[in-house]
Amino acid sequence: MTTSETDPRPITAPSTVPAWAHAAGLLLLGQAQAPNDATALADRALFTECIARYCWSYDERRLDSLANCFTEDAVWAGNVLGRIPIGPFEGRAQIIKWLSEFWPHQRDQRRHMLFNTIVEAQTPDSALTLSYLLLLGSNGSIVALETSGFYQVRYRRTSDGWQICHLMAGFDAPFWPGDINKMSAAGRLRHGVAVKDAE
Q1: For residue range 99-122, what is the model confidence (pLDDT) as tens digits?
Q2: What are the boundaries of each domain within the chain?
Q3: Three-state secondary structure of the chain
Q4: Closest CA to 163 of 42, 65, 71, 41
Q5: How high is the mean pLDDT of the chain?
Q6: What is the CATH number of domain 33-193?
């Protein structure tokens, strides 16, 4: 990822619109995919567990198990309302570095909650799922909703089992505090938002 620190164009989030991810061309909702046999059904349980383990590993700040969720050449990309791209981060090492760099700044307990997971595609060695995301944070006295959205996840079967090879996170609102237009270049970089993407 490259970030320009000199581009002054502001990032402005548009009004939330229904089906923004489809309108932005970030996802297409397909038809239900039934497993072909008992092996495919077992695989489905394993690759859907992989994205759940990603959530658990992040929230428990387990760098080892977080890394195990991704292939060596994985890609993590995100977008807020089809308007603000985040990343992409390419390769397991870059993904883990970026994700773990949030931890010193996040003093609350995060909970990544997945719902409505559906399988969009499945072969013996690859799969694609969609899940709703609710991101919660607790400071020890209150729990607050940080953002909502979805994960579109591609998996690959490897010698280490099912792993994420591409994760696309769509956010219905920013997961960072404050106005992105007032954030420093270092803050934008930490959140994966390149100044050059502003308009």
Answers
A1: 999 999 899 999 999 999 999 999
A2: 33-193
A3: CCCCCCCCCCCCCCCCCCCHHHHCCCCCCCCCCCCCCHHHHHHHHHHHHHHHHHHHHHHCCCHHHHHHCEEEEEEEEEEECCCEEEEEEECHHHHHHHHHCCCCCCCCEEEEEEEEEEEEEECCCEEEEEEEEEEEEECCCCEEEEEEEEEEEEEEEECCEEEEEEEEEEECCCCCCCCHHHCCHHHHHHCCCCHHHCC
A4: 71
A5: 88
A6: 3.10.450.50
